[in-house]
Amino acid sequence: MQPTKTLQQRQDELRALLSTPEGRADLEDLASRYFDAGGRARPPRTSVVTYLLVHERERGLIDG
Question: 35 near 41, Cβ under 8 Å?
Answer without folding.
Answer: yes
